[in-house]
């Protein structure tokens, strides 16, 4: 079920697009590859939110991107990365990776382990400025710093708390104990927030969310969250207007 009001849009987990390629199982919140829904093309500058699960030893061969901000957040396992900028690294749980594709890059992503699966969120955001020089950033974040609070993991270039993005966007993660209340304050009045429940359940802006549900929120300066079970969520604050 997908429901909306003038200021919210709700995407239940079971309404996402689904692809199963044997080695890859992927769930698409927004239209992607063979999944197309004209009502689910993007939320403001947030273009792609894929929930990917890759079998041991498998992955995505070298492929190109341009003029997109690409964020990878491992949820379990380790992801091996290589790109045309010369970066070769392993992205682990509690790491966040970002690439500004800019004028063009090519990269590959593989499960670093032959036996255990890896799961990660792949997120694309339209850039603030097009045709910039491609860039890469990766940081490790202490999970203890997000217990019962929001931890910034992505912020605009020039800020230092998270990995830098070529957009007026902020991402935050929070791990909340059941019953804990918290409030996310937006950085810009013209931004919106997309909340993705990684695990557990919570009431967000008065809407009950379960694991892998998503809620887009506009016209709000703050977003109240109450965990109804132990839960983890990702908040993506992005411009609502698409860049020209």
Q: How much β-strand is present in the residues?
A: over 45%
Helix content range: under 10%
The succession of helices and strands, N to C, reads: EEEEEEEEEEEEEEEEEEEEEEE
Please give the number of β-strands: 23
Please give the largest β-sheet: 8 strands, mixed
Principal-axis shape equals globular
Distance between the termini: 32 Å
CATH class: Mainly Beta
What would you say the CATH architecture is? Sandwich
Q: Characteristics of this structure?
A:
244 residues, mainly beta, Jelly Rolls, 8-stranded mixed β-sheet, 7-stranded antiparallel β-sheet, 0% helix, 55% strand, globular, disordered N terminus
Molecular structure report:
It contains no helices and 23 strands. The protein is an all-beta fold and about 240 residues long. The protein has a single domain (about 1-240), classed as Jelly Rolls. The strands form four sheets. An eight-stranded mixed β-sheet has the order 1-2-21-18-23-16-14-15, with no helix packed on it. It has a seven-stranded antiparallel β-sheet with strand order 3-4-5-12-7-10-13, with no helix packed on it. The radius of gyration is 17 Å and the shape is globular.
Provide the fold topology.
Elements: E1 2-4, E2 8-11, E3 17-20, E4 24-28, E5 46-54, E6 59-65, E7 69-76, E8 78-83, E9 88-92, E10 95-100, E11 105-111, E12 118-125, E13 135-140, E14 151-156, E15 163-165, E16 170-176, E17 181-185, E18 191-199, E19 202-204, E20 207-209, E21 214-217, E22 222-227, E23 231-239
Parallel strand pairs: 14-15
Antiparallel strand pairs: 1-2, 2-21, 3-4, 4-5, 5-12, 6-11, 7-10, 7-12, 8-9, 8-11, 10-13, 14-16, 16-23, 17-22, 18-21, 18-23, 19-20, 19-22
């Amino acid at each position: 079920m997908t429901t909306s009001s003038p200021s919210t849009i709700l995407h239940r987990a079971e309404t996402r697009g689904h692809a199963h390629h044997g080695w890859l199982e992927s769930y698409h919140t927004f239209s992607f590859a063979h999944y197309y829904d004209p009502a689910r093309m993007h939320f403001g500058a947030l273009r792609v939110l894929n929930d990917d699960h890759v079998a041991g030893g498998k992955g995505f061969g070298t492929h190109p991107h341009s003029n997109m901000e690409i964020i990878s957040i491992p949820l379990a396992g380790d992801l091996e990365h290589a790109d045309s900028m010369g970066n070769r690294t392993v992205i682990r749980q509690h790491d966040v990776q970002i690439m500004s594709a800019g004028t063009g890059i090519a990269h590959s992503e593989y499960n670093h382990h032959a036996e255990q699966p890896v799961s990660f969120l792949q997120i694309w955001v339209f850039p603030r400025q097009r045709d910039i020089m491609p860039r890469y950033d990766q940081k490790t974040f202490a999970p203890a710093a997000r217990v019962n609070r929001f931890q910034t993991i992505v912020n605009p270039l020039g800020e230092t708390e998270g990995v830098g993005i070529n957009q007026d966007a902020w991402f935050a993660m929070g791990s909340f104990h059941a019953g804990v209340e918290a409030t996310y304050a937006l950085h810009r009045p013209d931004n919106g927030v997309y909340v993705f429940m990684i695990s557990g359940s919570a009431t967000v802006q008065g809407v009950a969310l379960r694991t892998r549900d998503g809620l887009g929120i506009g016209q709000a300066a703050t977003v109240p969250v109450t965990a109804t079970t132990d839960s983890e969520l990702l908040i993506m604050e992005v411009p609502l207007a698409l860049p020209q």
